[in-house]
Here is the input.
Amino acid sequence: MIFITQLIYIIKGQEQVFDEFESIAIPTILKYNGRLLLRVRPTESSFIENHIDKPYEIHLVEFETQQDFDNFKQDEERKMFLHLKDQSIKASILIQGTKL
Here is the structure.
């Protein structure tokens, strides 16, 4: 089992475009033995301390194997909508790990 944590930073005014991309990307996770465990949109009061920019959303996803995650990234339908991701996301930080 692998875990992916992603901090997502949105281009101001592109929130609706981001939501459109997510409406395609998130269901695709299931096709590849994955599961969205958390999708958090933190508020200002959620942060106790920070030394990086505050993300718009935080995702925690699990996949059975690395190959499942790689297959998800190469999904043809998802790739058709990557222009929405490019249009709406300023930056993202992806952290990959395993359960200890």
Notes: The mean pLDDT is 96. The longest helix spans residues 15-31. The radius of gyration is 14 Å. The chain has four helices and four strands.
